[in-house]
Design a protein that fits this description.
Layout: E1 7-11, H1 15-26, E2 31-35, H2 38-42, E3 51-55, H3 64-73, E4 80-84, H4 89-97, E5 102-105, H5 110-142, H6 146-155, H7 161-168, H8 172-185, H9 191-201
Parallel strand pairs: 1-2, 1-3, 3-4, 4-5
Helix pairs in contact: 5-9, 6-8, 7-8
């Protein structure tokens, strides 16, 4: 199936509830896949299209929060909504701190569930976009040579060419040449553009004066 289809995944060991919830979610036009355990869900290849996960808390084997932790380790950005009949405040707080969209108690009102699914899908789209921007920025910066990456980190401090040249112990002409090459490789037209790219890639400006 095309990975442009919006999918709602349900992980719950209660077969009756799982079937009922799947029918409800399908009734508003979503494609649904159900899983009886967290391990079963982990065995499915990560879905790259728009999706969210409706997840029980207490299950045999891996619990819902443990599945949440495992997905985080795998860098799986799927947004999670917990649905449980055994909720407690500490578990709910931790789930939310770890990135869950919501922590809902069974039985949940249809309107509340549908609104939460919409929020989860919106958050998923945002996370996917940010992840793609980060990977694109990293790929661009990796195209720089080691020396160019060093100069790049000094440029994004906002320092002038002559100041960078002094800090690195090389000529201003060399810095100008590196700057031009960096701007070309990174498709940037200003220092502000370089700074935004660095922020997306998680690269900090140079701080310590290098040994000359």
């Amino acid at each position: 199936m095309s990975e442009t289809v919006t999918k709602i995944f349900i992980v719950d060991d209660d077969a009756t509830f799982c079937k009922s919830l799947a029918r409800l979610v399908q009734s508003i036009g979503f494609d649904v896949e159900t899983f009886a355990s967290a391990q079963e869900f982990l065995e499915r290849e990560a879905y790259q299209g728009p999706c969210c996960l409706l997840l029980d808390v207490r299950m045999p084997g891996l619990t819902g929060p443990e599945l949440q932790q495992e997905l985080a380790k795998r860098n799986n950005l799927i947004p999670i909504v917990f649905l449980t009949g055994h909720g407690d405040v500490p578990t709910g707080i931790k789930a939310m701190k770890d990135g869950a969209i919501d922590f809902l108690l069974k039985p949940v009102a249809e309107k509340n569930l549908f609104e939460t699914i919409d929020r989860a899908l919106d958050k998923g789209a945002y996370l996917k976009r940010k992840h793609e921007e980060t990977e694109e920025a990293k790929t661009l910066i990796e195209s720089l040579t080691e020396r160019e990456r060093e100069v790049f980190r000094w440029i994004i401090t906002g320092m002038l060419n002559k100041q960078i040249a002094w800090s690195l112990g090389i000529t201003e002409r060399t810095i100008k040449a590196h700057r031009a090459q960096i701007m070309h490789k990174l498709n940037a037209v200003s220092v502000a553009g370089l700074i935004r790219l660095a922020e997306k890639a998680g690269i900090s400006p140079a701080q310590d004066t290098p040994h000359i």
